[in-house]
Amino acid sequence: MKPRDPAIELKGIYTAYEGSDLPVIRDVSLTVRQGEFVIIGGPNGAGKTTLLETINGMLAITHGRAEVSGMDVSKQGVDVRKRVGYVIQNFSFDPLSPFSVEQVVMMGRYGLLGWLRQPGEEDYQAADRAIELLRIGDLRETPIGRLSGGQQQKVLIAQNLAKKPEILLLDEPFSNLDLCTRDFISRILKDIADQGCTVVMVSHAFDALPDRDIRIVVMNSGSISLNRVCHADEVEALVRQASVVA
Amino acid sequence: MLEFLISNNILCHAVEAMLFASVGCSILGVIITQLNISSIGFTMSHAAFAGAAAGMFFGIGGTTAAIIASLGVALLLGPLSDRARMSTDTTLGVLFGMMMAIAIFFISYMQYLGRGADTSALMFGNVIALYREDIYALAVISVIAILFVAIFFKEISAIIFNRKIAVAAGIRVTPIYYATLFMIAITVALSLNIVGGLLLYVWLVTPAAIVYQFCYNVKSLFIGAPLVAAAISVSGAWAGLEYSLPVGPLTAVIFSIVFLFSVALSPKRRITDRKN
What we know:
The complex is a heterodimer.
Chain A: E1 6-15, E2 25-33, E3 37-41, H1 48-55, E4 61-68, E5 71-72, H2 77-83, E6 84-87, H3 101-113, H4 121-133, H5 149-162, E7 167-171, H6 179-194, E8 198-202, E9 213-220, E10 223-231, H7 235-242
Parallel strand pairs in A: 3-8, 3-9, 6-7, 7-8
Antiparallel strand pairs in A: 1-2, 1-4, 4-5, 9-10
Helix pairs in contact in A: 3-4, 3-5, 4-5
Chain B: H1 9-34, H2 39-58, H3 62-83, H4 88-112, H5 120-124, H6 132-151, H7 153-161, H8 163-168, H9 173-195, H10 200-212, H11 218-242, H12 247-265
Helix pairs in contact in B: 1-6, 1-9, 1-10, 1-11, 2-3, 2-4, 2-9, 3-4, 3-9, 6-9, 10-11, 10-12, 11-12
């Protein structure tokens, strides 16, 4: 993919959950170029998480066309997810979970490996780099269930960075983090966006946004009510203006 | 297969059967317990039970009918829990009731017709009445279960960790999940004659639950559960035949006692009194 090619291109997208009378996302069109940093804002229930899961093909598109990393999401959902990282919002792990931090980070590589290939040197190096980048090297052997919510959040971000994604989707990644860690994660996200990875983040915390141009997308009742590029300082005010609270 | 170790033919058959049933069931049991779908164990075992009862009624092979019924439930389970927007546990609860009703219907109806079928083996197992072919089939399915886990270990471990995260990582979760259900179905159906439909659940769940008390990583669960299951099952078979006790129930009781001890001794529940 050439720089500044569209990384995400949604045209007239509708997404509905099974058994629901109305679509959750309605007629959403959005173009995000490679290396852009996108914040998705809006009130609760506006369809922000649904939009993320539509982009990576986890939810079925009922109408419209979505192209991500040059692939048709409806037909190549699994291949899209191999190239797109997704840090989920609601997670809880059993305190006695039998998975160490290192194993969880390595899982980020599994999709890329496919059915029969086992992790090799390159995969271990990618996982190691992600662990070092997030500064969780001392937790390597610790079972993930024994970590705090913030530490678990860092592990899940590392898992997705180990994948070396073309696009990184994050759903409220700052929700479990203290202020210093927010700044730290924000710097990492800025760096990877500067290196060409497209970052799309649902967030209600605007105090730790990277100092750069940001595309702000505000959703209301399943539709986009604002889509423009602004500076990090303007994001909070724009989200407040454009959000309609029911 | 083990005649070179055990000269007594009946004991040898019993040990072989218990060994293979315990290995197959316990390996799949690790997946079942870690996915929190333990009720899959009793639903599958009752499906095999219902199938075998129906097989006896219609005069076809009990094992064949048990395999067909278990596979039928496995076929229903995945799509039902995916499409019905219900938790897998709720789906299993519905299917469990249905399977139990079918089994009781055929058993009662056979008694009403005076066909006097002895169904106690279906419920409690009869380890000494097995055909050699049944034991070979169990050996094959145990080896397949081991290979399945070894080949797809990374996919299985990711699904066990968190199904949604596994999907997001680009892992094809559905084929692995459905393959697991099919493996459970066949293993349960083949083990039915050994431990019985009412006790099979113990073989599926308890070994993994015992090993879980001491293991901190998923690989050791997959290694430890079949070792513990095999040791207890073989001991149960030997003790049962040596002292003329019912083998299946005796082994199930031993499993439960070992589980209680493992919970009591588990380091996972220990609270440190160290100050530094």
